[in-house]
Amino acid sequence: MNMMQEPTVLVPCGHAYCKKCISGQPSCPQCEKKHSATVPVKLIGDLVTKYIYKRDAISTFRNDSFWKNKATA
Asked: Looking at per-residue confidence, does 13 or 65 come out higher?
């Protein structure tokens, strides 16, 4: 239940999981349909990467001592 790493969609149900989490599973954990293939999804991976980058940038900005000194001055 963390950020997806190597997002993969199951065929034919279309549910998405981490490649590592779904490997070795004969069926979808959500709908229990047997999947015939897995397809990597670049769009989800790109969204996760952008989210992590922005989250880390905001965290750095909030924790930067320069801004903390300005707020208390």
From this structure: 13
Token pair, residue 24, equals: 């070795």
**CB within 8 Å of 52: residues ≥ 6 apart:** 3
Q: State pTM to two decimals.
A: 0.66
d(CA 53, CA 20): 22
The count of structural domains within the chain is 1
Q: Where are the beta strands (DSSP E) in the chain?
A: 7-11, 16-18, 37-40
**73, amino acid identity:** A
In a domain, 58, yes or no: yes
- CATH number for 58: 3.30.40
